[in-house]
Amino acid sequence: MIIASAQTWPAYENIEANLLDHYRIINTAAANGVQLLVFPEMSITGYVHEAAEKLLFVENDSRLEKLRQLAKEHNMIVIAGAPVKLNSELHIGSFIIFPNGSISIYTKQFLHPGEEHYFVSNFVLNPVVKLEDEQIAFAICADIDHPQHAENARKKGASLYIASIFFSPQGLPGAYSTLSAYAKKFSLNVLMSNFCGESWKSPAAGGSAFWTKRGEMVGKLDNTTPGLIIVQKKNGHWVLKQ
Questions:
Q1: 184 burial level (CB within 10 Å; 0-12, 13-18, 19+)
Q2: Pairwise CA distance, residues 28 & 32, whole Å
Q3: Pairing between strand 103-107 and 89-97?
Q4: Nearest-5° angle of CA 212, CA 218, CA 220?
Q5: How far is Cα 186 from Cα 65, in angstroms, rounded to an integer?
Q6: How far apart are CA 68 and CA 60, in angstroms?
């Protein structure tokens, strides 16, 4: 199995530019045999608060069609984020796009202070996805600040925990410590995707990474450069794909 995390520098409030970047990255990942690819929090719009209403997506949004086509063409699960409006409520969401064209949605459960003025948390949309022998659960940013989130993922049978985040340089060391601890405590392999550069006029820390269920970091990206971290499971062990 080959999975990957995309580290992106989003164009602020520019959906078209960000989608074009997603298409490029998906094609690059496909050339490396990637079967699952995750993007950072609100990757399609860039991290937004005030502009969320004008940039929102809906459940069967037509702007996801090219992502669906690429997921099907490359037999890849793609996880991309955006503000999502469901039943008149606005959420921070991840679209989980499958090779058969279907889409599931994960919604952020634990909001960062200030987000509650624009978004609603949701504990209902919380899928666990199967890929080969892995059961995959999802998190968005501040979700990882709450140990019960990772614990609940494990209780639902997850073996792989995927976090789409937007963490600053100040916050990244804490995120590393937290995710490594979750990996070891809950026996979860962990894949994390972060922005680099700047989003919402704030610096992003990059450093997208993967940890084994022993809490050991297999590899990470640098703090400033867009790219992919690709890991592969060989004979039951996760290694960095060269």
A1: middle
A2: 7
A3: antiparallel
A4: 125
A5: 36
A6: 11
Locate 60 and state its tokens.
């069967």
Length of the chain in residues, anyone? Answer: 242
Instruction: Give the CA angle between residues 40, 49, 203 to the nearest 5°.
Output: 55
Q: Measured between alpha carbons, how far is 45 from 22 in angstroms, rounded to an integer?
A: 11
Average pLDDT in the chain:
96
Question: What's the rounded Cα separation, in Å, for the pair 29 and 42?
Answer: 20
pLDDT tens for 181-190 read 999 999 999 9
Which of 185, 193, 186, 180 has the alpha carbon at shortest distance from 228? 193
Instruction: Read off the tokens for 191.
Output: 């894949």
Return the bridge partners of 85, or none. 90
Bridge partners (DSSP) of residue 138 are: 162
pTM: 0.97
Buried b (16+ CB within 10 A) or exposed e, 142-167: bbbeeeebbebbbeeebbbbbbbbbb
Class for domain 2-240, per CATH? Answer: alpha beta
3-state SS, residue 160: strand
